[in-house]
């Protein structure tokens, strides 16, 4: 089946075609007809399977079918996301799909001044994409009218719970009409997520894609055993051996992200970091530079990069193995997006082996090992240290030359 065959508005089909989308992915194929029928949906699907378009296409179509009243009367649909970056990304997708329609959407998130966002709200909006905190703040201040909301979408719901947004979500629900359509999308399911989901949806259609195989079939993933202090040398070599490739490397902490960036800079490799201590302007700029190819290496933590759809990520490197096994799935899902193929490689130190075991239990399969011969391992370190040594030698020669000139000048006096 092709998108052209769906019972959706022609102007929306034009937007879909403009994005280069022809055939629906599994989650889109199963979710779109049910959403168009007005059903509540509880969808569990791997990251990178096209969940955003799965709810955005029918959402825009349904809002477009009804005769619009004045926009100032209130929001018609809300899409909630856990992070600033994901909210911005979802808004971009919605705007692209709705580009030939009169449907208007805006994005609200924290980390920036609220006044420009308030001005946008005053002009009227159909679809509000937001993070829970900023939505709750502006609603409390009286700038958002939720009485007309027909559809509520929770995207990456599992991550919203991880970030402590459960109370914000429950508080917002009190302001929404009881008669509404609710779409609940999550990459994973556990008792807490299930409890929240069934408190929000009514007789939902449950859709679960590949529940026994959480790894996307488009991703080849492997592990190589590298000691913690040597990882920077292997990342340097990997980068230099894969020219013109985009590499997204995951680390465990914000401090670690900055240290890896500094280590790469010492090896003449330009990299940027993405983590929660960065202000919104810096985070947005880092993502834009990575997307455009101005930089080929982005060092990120789990929280900041969760759910982000960056086209053309060739490699994901797990510089540090994640402490939570499910984050492994989210990380490597940053490559192999849609119908593209991707590769993911994990650097595992000796003390991280228990984390690797947890990952293998979670994904129901062993991770293929990429063996590194001892000679090759030592060569990688020697090569990196050799570059540093040559730099030190060069600096030493400069200092010696300067000293020689000072002595020569002194003797002339």
Description:
This protein is an alpha/beta fold. It has 16 helices and 14 strands. The chain has helices at residues 10-18, 26-36, 51-65, 84-97, 115-122, 132-140, 157-162, 166-173, 191-200, 231-241, 254-266, 280-292, 302-305, 325-332, 353-362, 374-412, and strands at 41-44, 77-80, 105-108, 127-130, 151-154, 181-186, 205-208, 219-225, 247-250, 271-274, 297-300, 315-318, 342-348, 368-369. The strands form 2 sheets. It has a 7-stranded parallel beta sheet with strand order 3-4-2-5-6-1-7, with helices on both faces. A 7-stranded parallel beta sheet has the order 10-11-9-12-13-8-14, with helices on both faces. Strand 3, helix 5 and strand 4 (127-130) form a beta-alpha-beta unit. Helix 3 (51-65) crosses helix 4 (84-97).
Rg over C-alpha atoms, rounded to the nearest angstrom: 25 Å
Low confidence ranges: 388-392
- On the 0 to 100 scale, the average pLDDT is 86
Secondary structure: number of strands: 14
Distance between the termini: 89 Å
Helix content: 40-55%
Instruction: Give the strand line-up of the largest sheet.
Output: 3-4-2-5-6-1-7
Gross morphology: globular
Structural class: alpha/beta
Number of helical segments with 4 or more residues = 16
- SSE sequence, one letter per element: HHEHEHEHEHEHHEHEEHEHEHEHEHEHEH
Oligomerization state: single chain
Largest sheet: 7 strands, parallel
Question: Roughly what fraction of the amino acids lie in strands?
Answer: 15-25%
């Amino acid at each position: 089946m092709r998108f052209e065959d769906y019972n959706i508005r022609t102007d929306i089909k034009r937007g879909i075609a403009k994005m280069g989308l022809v055939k629906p992915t599994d989650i889109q194929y199963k979710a779109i007809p049910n959403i168009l029928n007005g059903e509540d949906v509880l969808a569990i699907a791997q990251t990178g399977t096209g969940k955003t378009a799965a709810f955005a296409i029918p959402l825009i179509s349904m809002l477009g079918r009804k005769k619009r009243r004045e926009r100032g009367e209130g929001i018609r649909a809300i899409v909630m996301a856990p992070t600033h970056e994901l909210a911005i990304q979802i808004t971009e997708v919605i705007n692209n799909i709705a580009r030939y329609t009169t449907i208007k959407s805006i994005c609200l998130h924290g980390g920036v001044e609220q006044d420009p966002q308030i001005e946008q709200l005053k002009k009227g909006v159909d679809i509000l994409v937001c993070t829970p905190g900023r939505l709750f703040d502006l609603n409390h201040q009286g700038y958002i009218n939720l009485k007309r909301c027909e559809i509520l979408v929770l995207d990456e719901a599992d991550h919203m719970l991880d970030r402590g947004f459960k109370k914000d979500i429950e508080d917002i629900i009190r302001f929404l009409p009881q008669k509404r359509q609710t779409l609940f999308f999550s990459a994973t399911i556990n008792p807490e997520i299930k409890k929240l989901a069934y408190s929000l949806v009514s007789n939902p259609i449950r859709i679960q894609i590949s529940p026994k195989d959480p790894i996307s079939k488009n991703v080849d993933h492997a592990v190589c055993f590298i000691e913690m202090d040597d990882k920077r040398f292997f990342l340097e070599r990997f980068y230099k051996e894969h020219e013109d490739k985009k590499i997204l490397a995951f680390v465990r902490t914000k401090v670690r992200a900055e240290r890896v960036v500094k280590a790469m800079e010492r090896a003449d490799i330009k990299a940027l970091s993405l983590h929660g201590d960065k202000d919104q302007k810096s985070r947005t700029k880092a993502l834009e530079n990575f997307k455009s190819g101005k930089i080929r290496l982005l060092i990120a933590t789990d929280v900041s990069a969760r759910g982000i759809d960056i086209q053309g990520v060739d490699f994901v490197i797990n510089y540090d193995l994640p402490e939570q096994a499910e984050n492994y799935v989210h990380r490597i899902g940053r490559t192999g997006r849609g119908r593209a193929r991707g590769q993911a490689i994990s650097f595992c130190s000796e003390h991280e082996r228990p984390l690797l075991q947890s990952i293998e239990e979670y994904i129901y399969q062993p991770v293929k090992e990429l063996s590194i011969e001892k000679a090759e391992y030592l060569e990688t370190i020697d090569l990196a240290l050799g570059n540093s040594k040559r730099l030190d030698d060069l600096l030493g020669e400069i200092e010696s030359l300067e000293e020689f000139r000072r002595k020569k000048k002194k003797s002339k006096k």
